[in-house]
Amino acid sequence: MSKVLVVLETAGGKIRSHCLPGITAGKQIADARGAELHLLVLGANAAAEGAEIAAAGYGAAGVHTITDAALEPFTAEAWGDAVVHAVKTLSPAVVGGTASSALRDCLPRAAAVLDAALCAEIVAVKSGDTFTRPISAGRALLDEQLSGDLVFFTARGSEFAPAEAGAATTAAVIDGASVDVRGAQVLGISKTESSRPALTEASVVVSGGRGMREGANFSHLEQLTDLLGGALGASRAATDAGMVPADLQVGQTGKIVAPNLYIAVAISGAIQHLAGMKGSKTIVAINKDEEAPIFQVADYGLVAKWEDAVPALIAALEARKG
Amino acid sequence: MTKILVTVKRIPDPDENLKFANGGLDLSSVKWVPNAFDEYAVETALRLAEDVGSKKTKHAEIIVLSICPAKQRQHMTQFLAMGGDRGVIVDANDADYDTAAIAKMIAKVAQDEGVDMVITGKLSQDNEGNQVGQRVAALLGWPQACFAAEVDWDQGSNSLKVAREVDDGVETKQVPLPALVTVDLRVVLPTSVRNGINPADHKFTDGPRLASLRGITMAKRKKVKTVTPADLGVESAGGEKTTTINKPAARAAGQMVGSVEELVEKLATEAKVL
Ligand SMILES: Cc1cc2nc3c(=O)[nH]c(=O)nc-3n(C[C@H](O)[C@H](O)[C@H](O)COP(=O)(O)OP(=O)(O)OC[C@H]3O[C@@H](n4cnc5c(N)ncnc54)[C@H](O)[C@@H]3O)c2cc1C
Ligand SMILES: Nc1ncnc2c1ncn2[C@@H]1O[C@H](COP(=O)(O)O)[C@@H](O)[C@H]1O
């Protein structure tokens, strides 16, 4: 039976939760093709991690692992080599995973070596070989048909439900990979430490824009965010101005989010920002300019200065909580 | 001298409304503009090449490459006016080729020109493939530093130290040359690019530079070589084929609320999100 192979990332010995929507996309493609879903685990300790992932199954027919110290920390070079080796060993018809920064970095590399087409950031599976993806900052949806014995995809995490654990499956080791970082060296990663949920996984996101004026003012939004148990986001204007770290940026070039509730404060609503949040279930916009384009996508719009509206909103929510 | 190849694409003006027609986009009357990320790529190359102390000294030759109809090269002229040294055009309607084919053309030009560095945008704003650069690096067998927010050229070890925007934060990756870089938005902030020659704290003007009048005059005299995909050994358009392009469903019309109290009430009872 033909195979759909989904590449996973792990951290602390466990599957990273942002990978789960990619498994769902892979499963949908496998079902549309009458193919089997398989999972690929790469890392310095992949065999052990793979065994644990196989115990949770996630609807896969098998888990495959490549263990090599050079696969950690992640580099596109070594991971690209490992994916190429896995493809040569398992001969899948489709390879993909969630469109994380890591897979967006390494999968096109593997696709190029294998001379395969790649459909990026798919949001829907139309058939076994045709996928839908947004283009031009989400203003159009492209149905792209991929031809070839091998094709690649990356799936937008906000558009597929996280895969759930299911019946256990088996894990198998793939030997003989030779992976090479090509002289690249990861010197470090500076993470934005936060006790809040990940921006892409939170059910509530509160974002601030240029109208917040300075970083210190984001403390009001943080208070609102924490009251709602959400994650903090921002527009490019706010991140470029250094008010908040760059990885909070929502939009075409930032994170794509689709929470239950998105609150945009002092954000004008440029198309590049909308591209990252208009899939949200309920959108609230607070802006002092009634002409701001953000109101065109908002379910609830409030024309007000944030200096008045945000403290009032915090007080009202606190009162409700009692 | 170090040679840097920068890839640039022309795209329909992203600030204009899209026109949908016959299951596709009607591009007959669009205004073509340079892809913003490619402006950032050219600015990055210029900053890497520039000796701000003695304006005349350049530490790299910058070759600008575009796959586009040869007659529609305004964007190429603009990039040469910004400071690119010479151009290469692959005369083709790039929309007829998929990202794999485009990447093969770029990799072949990089090889033929014997460049030390390729800089691409991280994304084309229209197609949003986010993959051409990675593919070029793979085809050349080079290391890559994608989604660059800062680039630091260490002349001693002839390597690049690149701060990359990744999901969790910022990763610093060092790659020996030859290497490929794809640039993100923040690479054009005033201190994002350092070449080891200028003072470390030199501040460039924010954003990609505008072409000067002198630059515009000079651009007309700069060499632009034209080749075809076939010259580069690329015959096939590749396996990514557009079937239809549709307009996304519009969001249902929303409502304006008059007060914070009304907002909270509606969020609780109507939207049921509290
Ligand atoms: C290639 C490219 C990619 C991009 N990618 C992204 C992206 O991923 N994400 C993104 O966000 N942007 C992106 N942008 C930038 C985007 O085009 C806009 O410039 C940006 O989103 C504007 O941010 P803003 O809404 O915060 O600022 P502005 O547009 O300046 O809006 C500020 C708003 O705040 C309001 N305001 C001011 N004071 C107050 C107050 N006291 N109370 C209430 N409201 C107030 C104003 O009325 C105004 O509407 C990109 C641009 C390009 C060219
Ligand atoms: N037709 C083209 N000509 C030159 N460069 C291109 C072309 N298409 C894509 N590129 C380069 O590849 C980058 C990424 O494109 P994409 O993978 O389509 O998002 C762009 O920012 C350009 O630098």
UniProtKB/TrEMBL annotation, chain A:
Cofactor dependence: FAD
Pfam families tied to this protein: ETF (PF01012), ETF_alpha (PF00766)
| Gene3D superfamilies referenced in this protein's UniProt entry, alphabetically | HUPs, TPP-binding domain
Q: Which GO terms describe its biological process?
A: fatty acid beta-oxidation using acyl-CoA dehydrogenase
Q: How is the cofactor bound?
A: Binds 1 FAD per dimer.
- Domain Electron transfer flavoprotein alpha/beta-subunit N-terminal: start-end pairs: 4-191
Which keywords has UniProt assigned to this entry? Electron transport, FAD, Flavoprotein, Transport
Annotated residues for binding of FAD: R210, S235, R236, Q249, V250, G251, Q252, T253, N287
Q: What molecular function does GO assign, one term? A: flavin adenine dinucleotide binding
The family this protein is said to belong to: Belongs to the ETF alpha-subunit/FixB family.
- Relate the protein's function as given in its record: The electron transfer flavoprotein serves as a specific electron acceptor for other dehydrogenases. It transfers the electrons to the main respiratory chain via ETF-ubiquinone oxidoreductase (ETF dehydrogenase).
Q: What protein does this entry describe?
A: Electron transfer flavoprotein subunit alpha
| Organism of origin | Plesiocystis pacifica SIR-1
